[in-house]
Amino acid sequence: MKTYRIKTVDAFTKKPFAGNPAGVVLDAGGLTDTQMQLIAREVNHPETAFILPATERDANVRIRWFSPLSEVPLCGHATIASFHALAEEELEGMSTNGQHYFRLQTKSGILAVRVEKNFYDTTIEFELPVPKFKVKKKLPATMLRALDLTAKEIKKDLPIVTDLYLYIPVNGLAVIEKIKPNFSALTNELKKMKLNGVSLFSLETKEKDSAVHSRFFAPNYGINEDPVTGSANGPLGCYLQKYVLSAGYPVVCRELSDGRLEFVGEQGDEIHRTGRVKIRVHLRQKEIESISIAGEAVTIMNSILKI
Prior knowledge:
This protein has 6 helices and 19 strands.
């Protein structure tokens, strides 16, 4: 019988029982795909991350992510949670405070991670692939019904777009807050469109320093509503830059010392799991060169699995 250490970590928050919970298996070497899926189902968080040795020369650590139903190609909050856990345990060379850099092997490519470890907290920044948005002129009536949304509630002067997910701009917080999707119907619609989830977002926010407020649904992955979705908030930063600012909307952002723009994404308030995501966009000659998400996390549980 072998033992595995599993942490439960709330990401994109500094407060326990907020943000997005993730399971983190600190050393998943030796686990089969079937065992990983069974563990993720048992842990039953939106995602469980399995930390493994890298198998590609250009990477120094590898992560696989599983929802309760299947493996997913990309997960922001579980990556934030994973590197928080590694830093907390002083693993992967993070025994000292300061900046630590990683090349993370994933099913979405090799992505950069930066960990800033201090005495009082740890901030993790995770590079995401730049989305390749495709504009959709109209949504099927069946998708609108599944989302409990009407055509009048969609913002008319901003596009609906797809990448891995479907992104729908809506007319304010009141629309966001009242949504009650039919998850069975939404699963079918997402499968028809070959998409992994849907993000509904508003430019009206709860806090004055935020740029966008969203909710995210992925019932086809066993996640009816995800509390705080890093892999969806990152592309929202690109959406703000590409479509919202160019349309003349004022968007709250700040310029970092390295010249990047930082937006804050709100999510999770409607299901009492409030989280905030820092979305960082790097431009070169007005084109988006790279995006990343950043945030803090807090460990709320340590456990041992014996199998």
